[in-house]
Write a structure and sequence with these properties.
By secondary structure, this protein is α+β, with helices and mostly antiparallel strands. It has helices at residues 3-8, 14-65, 80-94, 108-117, 140-145, 318-322, and strands spanning 173-174, 183-184, 194-196, 222-223, 235-236, 240-242, 248-250, 257-260, 271-272, 284-285, 292-293, 299-300, 309-310. A hairpin with a 6-residue loop joins strand 10 (284-285) and strand 11 (292-293). Bound molecules: calcium ion (CA) (3 copies).
């Protein structure tokens, strides 16, 4: 055998092998990053589509009932009585023949039937559960879109055919506050979708058309950090925009906002770089600038806002919509 022939068959040295392994490792990690990005993009797309479908269902509800459901947020509807009244007056308009005594808490037999049918959660176990006053912005739209009984005197607890306006995947219905009312998780997020009826802010805050956000309790919110049982974190609040006159409007100010926290399951909140500025209740997130306004211009979107998905964002996430995505 000639020496040249031997060289052709000498194989790899240890160093060469290590170099090859390192290159393969780098290529594999690059591929994994690309695959991960593609997976997240597909997940965002699926959640965005579902938000759009729920929006369409709410618009259909408006066509049928002449109004969007109230959101029962704790600012505009500051007491349980106001929340219950908002629901009953809405239903009374739609179902004028309903019996006032036949709503949940008044009819245990029908309630049991509904639990079995999946219309209400079996979790409720205290005297205040299954009451309309317990409905909040994560639950109201689910109740309204699940459809009502053909028993028009008793639309919530009655039996008979229901025609849901949106067919909720029952494996994603959750009752994290154990009050008997379902809320709904997006497909790839642990955080419940939040519904804000922006119309209810037409008379709120007290000085409409101005930047009146220095009232600590004037912005509706769902504080997931304080909601036991929910895997979501952060505070969901309606987003706003500055109109052509330089005044403030809620985004979709005559319709509604649906908010999904995205794959990170976090709604964000208020990032305040100036620690002397109170973070809570004094700022509003401005769409699509990515900024917030209030007493301090130091307040901006948090990174958790970036993958949030809404019914008004044009791109798949708020971050990509605003060009702020990292
Ligand atoms: Ca509730
Ligand atoms: Ca609930
Ligand atoms: Ca998020």
């Amino acid at each position: 055998m000639t020496s040249r022939h031997r060289a052709c068959h000498r194989g790899f040295t240890l160093v060469e092998l290590l170099v090859v392994i390192a290159i393969i490792g780098i290529l594999a990690s690059l591929a994994l990053v690309g695959i991960r990005r593609a997976v997240v993009a597909a997940q965002n797309g699926a959640m965005n589509l579902e938000i759009k479908q729920i929006s369409q269902a709410l618009n259909q509800y408006k066509i049928d009932s002449d109004a969007y459901p109230p959101d029962c947020n704790s600012v505009v509807y500051s007491s349980g009585t106001l929340r219950a009244n908002a629901i009953t007056s809405h239903l009374r308009r739609r179902f004028p023949k309903r019996s006032a005594t036949d709503y949940p808490t008044a009819n245990a037999t029908n309630l049991t039937r509904l639990i079995n049918a999946g219309y209400l959660s079996p979790n409720g176990n205290t005297s205040s559960d299954y009451q309309l006053s317990q409905l909040d912005p994560t639950e109201v739209y689910v109740l309204f879109l699940m459809g009502f009984s053909s028993d028009i005197t008793n639309p919530i607890t009655g039996t008979g055919d229901r025609t849901p306006l949106f067919k909720f995947d029952t494996t994603r219905l959750v009752d994290t506050d154990n009050d008997g009312w379902w809320s709904f998780k997006p497909k790839y997020s642990d955080s419940e979708i939040v519904y804000f009826n922006a119309y209810s802010y037409d008379t709120f805050p007290a000085s409409p058309g101005s930047y009146a956000f220095n009232q600590s309790a004037s912005v509706a919110q769902v504080n997931f950090d304080a909601l036991s049982g929910s895997l979501a974190t952060g505070i969901a609040r309606p987003y706003g925009k500055v109109n052509a006159n330089g005044k403030f409007d809620w985004v979709n100010n005559d319709t509604f906002q649906l908010l999904c926290a995205g794959v990170d399951g976090a709604y964000g909140g208020y990032y305040v770089s100036d620690p002397t500025v109170a973070a809570n209740g004094d700022a509003v997130k401005i769409y699509p600038s990515g900024q917030a306004t209030g007493p301090s211009s130091a307040v901006t979107y948090k990174v958790e806002d970036m993958d949030n998905i809404t019914n008004f964002s044009e791109a798949s996430t708020l971050g990509s919509d605003t060009g702020l995505a990292p």
